[in-house]
Amino acid sequence: MAGLLTAIPPVALLLPVAILVALLPRRSGHALGVLASALATAWVWVVPDGAYLQTTFLGFEAVLFNVDDFSRLMGLVFGLIAAVAVLYSYASDADGVQTGFALSYVATSFGAVFAGDWLTLLFFWELMAVTSTLLVWYYGGKAVRAGFRYALFHGIGGTLLMAAILQTYVVKGTFLFASVPGGPETAGIAAGLPAALAAIGIGVNVGFIGLHAWLPDTYPRPHVAASVFLCVFTTKTGVYGMYRAFPEGHVAIAYMGGGMAVFGATFALFQNDMRRLLSYHIQSQVGYMIAGVGIGGALAQAGAFAHVFNHILYKGLLFMTAGVVIYRTGEESLKKLGGLRKEMPLTAGAFTVAALSIAGFPGFNGFVSKGIVISASHYSFSKGPLPIGDFYTLEWLLLLGGIGTFMSFIKFGYYAFFHGEYDGSVPDANRLQSVAMISVAALCVAYGVFDSALFAILPFDVTDGAVVSHVYKTYTVPHVVEGVALAVLGLIGFAVTKKPLSKLGRVPDVDSLYNPGAFYGMRALVVGVTELYAAVDRISVNAASAFTSAVANPDALYERVIGGDDEDVRHPLRAGIGLSILVLAAFVTLALLILP
């Protein structure tokens, strides 16, 4: 049995199933999708660690199925949320073709995180960009243009990553990861230019500041069920890729993570579109993961991947609750909602669990994983340039991001569920939507209360002093006080900013600069090239016409240039003009032959 499991990676199961889901009747297709995703989860759980399917790919050594503690964690949570998301898709009236695209996106994400070499990872990385773009495009309307921008971003990011991988091959002579048989002595991307290119290329996927605008631009556009898939796989596969590229960490990446935590939470606070708010918080929460990867070491990396696991759960739940509100009311904006706690108590309860989880309130899963990363920023990282009292630079950035998270979700909950009265009556989530949300909400609470269950699947044991630089304990008095203090500060912050925030319109982001710049820049380039070509064409045509006219009637040319009828002058001049025309014609012909 084990031999069969290792001979066929999960992607080989999920891709054919994705096609079948698109072709079968809606009910049976979605049932098959849930079953296949659940089977993939079980599959990942029982497969032993090791490098399997070692072969040649495009003439290079490759490992198509590599299982270790990092890839196993990714596969477990990917399969789990995929099963729930397919169920939610069926309950939210998604058709089979859309869910087929979604499952192909899931499959290619599995392929990327279980790759044992850079070439295989890049292959599935690019397929993941294609399948996710198709999922966005399928909805039509505004999603089409957003999908083009999404595809452009990820195409550029993938190209930069490919350049980094190729330069790393030149240095190391292999695409294999260091952890697999035959791999190089040093892990990760080669230092110098390859590392810079990889950081930027992967930075597109994880939402580095300045490269993040595709997130809030794209994720609010498609079907509500598609958003549940989209919020999970691209950014978290990016975190996994960042770890593979920088297994020892990097100070610049750590501080970028801290900046993302603050930037994303701040811009989320400005939003009134529910899914746009949640999209900015993907950037913010991924910031904690990137900070953990950048800090390096067992404690920080365990925290980063613990937060990957937890974030997929509570972020998927948040997009499901927002999706139910949109599904039932047809409204996307918080300004047009209110008082839904009485109309939709189950959805309001699921949202509350997810909001407390993402904000890191004690008793919920985000409190556990976020605490590990913050602890690592204090005990496993330098003080940095701006320490404040006992709080180091990166540490207070992460804490500030936590306050902003509380403020954002107090705002979301207040305007959607608790403020005012909803005008009319609206049903709560249907039965299968409820099953999906309650299942994930239960896991958010379970992993928050029973933190040992989360620790058991992490790549490093954070409770063992022989493994980590600082033993982590979740429920200590200072840690609980810190979690409650962040919540209180978030509540006070929202109370202070509630009135000015209510008057805000849409706050411009960096895409307000480079979207028009790219549009008008490309238009100017196209117009400039076409006009230049037209001008050259006109000159060539006029020269050819003049040449033809002069050869056919040189007397007419003489009359226009010189005038008069003196026959003694006309013959020598005619010969000179003819010779000049021949030389000019030769140059024009040569130029036309040389120019592309």
From TrEMBL:
Which residue intervals define the domain NADH:quinone oxidoreductase/Mrp antiporter transmembrane in the entry?
115-377
The UniProt entry, under Pfam families, shows: Proton_antipo_M
Keywords recorded for this protein, A-Z:
Cell membrane, Membrane, Oxidoreductase, Transmembrane, Transmembrane helix
> How does it sit in the bilayer?
Multi-pass membrane protein
Any idea where this protein resides? Cell membrane
A GO cellular component entry from the record: plasma membrane
Q: Which InterPro entries does the UniProt record give?
A: ComplexI-like_HydComp, NADH_UbQ_OxRdtase, ND/Mrp_TM
NCBIfam families according to UniProt: PRK12668.1
Protein name, per record: Na(+)/H(+) antiporter subunit D
This protein's species is Haloarcula nitratireducens
